[in-house]
Structures are given as structure tokens and as C-alpha cells.
User: Which sequence fits this backbone?
């Protein structure tokens, strides 16, 4: 009789324990979902706050001038129009400027990926005298602002008769200390035995880079490509100094030509700005995961 009572008590206790566990799990799941919902709402609010100037610029680009210059606060155009975009394209050769920027940014991006990856390979896998000193000198160039060398660079390219050409916009930016550092930190996460094994099997350095390193460093290449393209697309001071004709101007220089003393040109200028920021924003949105992954992938070994 006592054993039956003890078994019944155990069953009751086990049922209560299961119910108690279910209640705890439900509460934990509810808290998790509630916190996730709150964080999502906060993120949406912050994103809307940060994107408000961009969204308002897009709204102005589609807004007629008579709606912009009123005492009313018009955030959204009542009669959207593409006339501002057509006027911007008619006033300046914006298509030519966009093509120039794509050519310059594309070649600079490819050049930096190739040169920085090769230099980083040398600093990571090859053993030669003065390697550490040379790497420190390369890193030291990051502390020199570009404005400090712009005059000497201008005199150099002027003596070479490169002014107002593609090479003057591309060649000075075919490598960067930041890119070498990024690739080197990523290569440092690979064991040196990987390179030694490839050499024993008769693999050359270039084949090792092409067949082994490049497939393993896609995230670093993606990060470098996004970062370099956006920087090259937004260059202003150097193209302003070395270009003098509409044939070679880039978008950042050409967009200033839309500015006018006529106040009615503001909506047209904003329309031009919206057109030239679309490529850089698109590249960032497409490659943001690669950018974040590449920036942090080489930070931890293993």
C-alpha cells in the first residue's frame, strides 16, 4: 500500500515538474520574442532617423520648384516629376562623368586588389632581410595625409604630361597601405605549413596565390573591393586638380557645375546628387556583408 502511494506521489511530482518547466520555457520564449520585437522597433526608428536626410533629398529630387519654395513644410511632392533629372542631364554631360567615375573606380579597385594581395603575400609568407622594417615603413605612410603630398604628385604627373588623362586619375592610387595591412592580417590566419606544402609539391608563388589564397580570401577581397570602390568614386580634390575638361571630369567634380546663383536650381542639383550617390550606395548595400566579414575575419587566428 505504501509503495502505491509513493508511486502516485512521484507521478504527481513529475507532472508538476513538467508543468513548471513548460511555464518557464513559455516565459523565456515570451521574453525573447518581446526583446527581439523591441530591438527591431528601435533599429527601425534609428534607421529612419539616420536615413531621413537621404529620403528628404530623394523627395526634393522629384519635387517641382514651386512646391519646394513655399511657406508650407512639403516633405513629399504632391505632383512628382522627372523634370529635375532631365534638366540635370541636359545642363551638364552627366553620363560622361558617370562613365569616367566607373572607369576610374573600377581600375583603381582591381589595381589595389592585385597589388595589395601580392605585397601582403610577400610580407606574410616570404622570408627576406628587412621585411619587418619595410612593412613598418609601408604602415608609416598611413600617417601622411594626402594633402601633404598632393603638390609633389602634381609636379610629377605634370612633368610626365599626364594631366587630363585617365592614367593621372588611376595610377597614383593603384596601391594602398591599408589594403596591404588588411590582406596581410588575413594571410596571417593561415599556417605557414600551407605554403611550405605547396612549395614542396612544386607550386610556384603565383600559382599558390591564384589557386589557394584567392579562393580562401574571398571575404577580404570583397571588403577591399567595396571600400576601394566607394573611396575612388567619392574622390574630389585630386580629380579637381588634374582634370580641366568635361571629357575627363568625374561625377564629384561635375556635380558642382549644377550649382548656380539661381535659387530655382536647388531641386535640379539635388536630383543630380541623387543620381551620383545611387552607385556607391548600391555597391555598399550589395557588399556590406563582405565588408564587415572581411574587416574582422583576420582579427582572430584559428
Assistant:
Amino acid at each position: 500500500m505504501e509503495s502505491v502511494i509513493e508511486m502516485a506521489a512521484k507521478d504527481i511530482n513529475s507532472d508538476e515538474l513538467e508543468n513548471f518547466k513548460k511555464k518557464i520555457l513559455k516565459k523565456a520564449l515570451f521574453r525573447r520574442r518581446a526583446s527581439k520585437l523591441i530591438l527591431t522597433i528601435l533599429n527601425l526608428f534609428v534607421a529612419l532617423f539616420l536615413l531621413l536626410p537621404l529620403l528628404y533629398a530623394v523627395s526634393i529630387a522629384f519635387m517641382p520648384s514651386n512646391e519646394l519654395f513655399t511657406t508650407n513644410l512639403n516633405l513629399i511632392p504632391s505632383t512628382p516629376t522627372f523634370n529635375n533629372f532631365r534638366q540635370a542631364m541636359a545642363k551638364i554631360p552627366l553620363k560622361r562623368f558617370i562613365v569616367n567615375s566607373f572607369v576610374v573606380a573600377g581600375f583603381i579597385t582591381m589595381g589595389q586588389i592585385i597589388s595589395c594581395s601580392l605585397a601582403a603575400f610577400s610580407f606574410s609568407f616570404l622570408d627576406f632581410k628587412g621585411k619587418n622594417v619595410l612593412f613598418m615603413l609601408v604602415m608609416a605612410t598611413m600617417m601622411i595625409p594626402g594633402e601633404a603630398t598632393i603638390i609633389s604628385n602634381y609636379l610629377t604627373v605634370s612633368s610626365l604630361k599626364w594631366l587630363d588623362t585617365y592614367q593621372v586619375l588611376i595610377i597614383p592610387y593603384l596601391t594602398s597601405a591599408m589594403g596591404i595591412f588588411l590582406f596581410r592580417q588575413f594571410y596571417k590566419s593561415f599556417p605557414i605549413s600551407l605554403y611550405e606544402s605547396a612549395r614542396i609539391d612544386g607550386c610556384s608563388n603565383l600559382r599558390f596565390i591564384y589557386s589557394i589564397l584567392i579562393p580562401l580570401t574571398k571575404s577580404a577581397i570583397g571588403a577591399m573591393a567595396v571600400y576601394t570602390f566607394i573611396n575612388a568614386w567619392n574622390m574630389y580634390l585630386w580629380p579637381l586638380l588634374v582634370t580641366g575638361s568635361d571629357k575627363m571630369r568625374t561625377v564629384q567634380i561635375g556635380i558642382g557645375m549644377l550649382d548656380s546663383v539661381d535659387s530655382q536650381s536647388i531641386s535640379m542639383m539635388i536630383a543630380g546628387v541623387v543620381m551620383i550617390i545611387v552607385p556607391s550606395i548600391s555597391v555598399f548595400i550589395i557588399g556590406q556583408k563582405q565588408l564587415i566579414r572581411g574587416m574582422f575575419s583576420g582579427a582572430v587566428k584559428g
